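Friendly challenge for the regulars: who can give me the structure tokens for this chain first? No prize, just bragging rights.
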Amino acid sequence: MYNFTLQIVVFIHYICLHIEYSGAAILVIIGCVFFYKGFDKKNNYYSNTTDSSLSRNAYVGGDAYNYIINSEYFVGYITIGSMTFICGSIFAGLGIVLHYKKENLNNIEAKHDDTPESTSLPPLE
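First reply, four minutes later:
Bragging rights claimed.
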């Protein structure tokens, strides 16, 4: 019974380990996208008063209002990007912890081998 339970725990750790690393990579990529969108809002502002189709990141007629709106977009995107980076770091840290726990469980499994050779007594003379 002990070996079966240990195998289940090792299997669950193995699954979680791969989910943690792939989840961390996905969150970091999503964070990069949000950082790009935030800096795009901040740095790429152009307002054309004669032809509104040439305007970039312009929402209303006044420049000051557009700067305020773009700064709010910038803060929002950077906040979301930072949170995804933090969550990705947590996932990567959990993956590392689970990796070392798996190694520890493998060491325990090797020490508690229940084969008859390891538990039998030497023959009497």
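The longest helix spans residues 63-111. The two ends are 34 Å apart (CA to CA). Your move, everyone else.
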